[in-house]
Amino acid sequence: MALSSITKKLIMSISGLFLIVFLLLHTTINFFAVIDAIKGTWGAPAGEGWYAGGCWFMATPVIDIMVPILALGFIVHIVYAGILSYGNYKARGEVRYAVANKTKAESWASKNMLVLGVIVLGFVAFHMSHFWAEMQYVEWFKGEHVAPESVYALMELTFGNIWMVIIYIIWFAALWFHLTHGFWSAFQTIGWSNKVWENRLMWAGKALATLLCVCLTITAIVGYLVANDVIPGGVL
């Protein structure tokens, strides 16, 4: 039996909120590298280096179980976003991403959520080729343990080039726009938004998106500074 449009939106909203929770965890662990640069523990083993400890946690069985669930969440979110966007495009022509509130729908982010999502997805794959493929993939499929200092070296290799930092910052900007609309829209779809809470959720979404993207940007910049010996702590 075909799912209704409301059910599809509900599935996409719940999967989106789930992905935001994981993004919070991921951003926090990445920001541990900044703390290491400040404390002088960059390159230290797990137990001393915050980032190494965070990466060790990401390799635990709990996260191993969560990764397939996360992948499923991505797939569900992407599939239903595509289905809804296509349905809205056919039904409304130029209005690509319909929401209940016409005023909010006029924002740039709301009208370009699919495009922003595609950009974010592309960079997720790009990011995974730098980190996940070199860390969890190696441990899962090759049985090779990634040494703690290697995670710092990987950070330096990735962000040692200024153009790589710029590319990542562009990604963070697209992510910001996607989150600012997606956060409050998800709560609206679930039914947890009303005239009182709508503006609060919109501002909460902007605050959350800003916090995440600022932390990610600082992490990338610190990785560049360490890799180029602007600040001490490099392991390469």
Account of the 3D structure:
Helix 1 packs antiparallel against helix 2, helix 1 crosses helix 9 and helix 1 runs parallel beside helix 10. This protein is mainly alpha-helical. The chain contains 10 helices and no strands. It has one domain: 3 helical TM bundles of succinate and fumarate reductases (Up-down Bundle), CATH 1.20.1300. Helix content is 76%, strand content 0%.
Number of domains: 1
Low-pLDDT stretches = 94-106
Percent range for helical residues?
over 70%
Portion in strands? under 5%
User: What is the CATH class name?
Assistant: Mainly Alpha
Number of strands: 0
In CATH, the architecture is: Up-down Bundle
Shape: elongated
Count of alpha and pi helical runs: 10
Secondary-structure element order, N to C: HHHHHHHHHH
CATH fold-level name: 3 helical TM bundles of succinate and fumarate reductases
Q: Distance N terminus to C terminus? A: 57 Å
Radius of gyration: 19 Å
The largest β sheet comes out as: none
Structural class: mainly alpha
Mean pLDDT: 76
SSE layout:
Elements lengths: L4 H35 L10 H9 L2 H32 L9 H4 L2 H4 L1 H18 L5 H6 L6 H12 L2 H29 L6 H31 L9
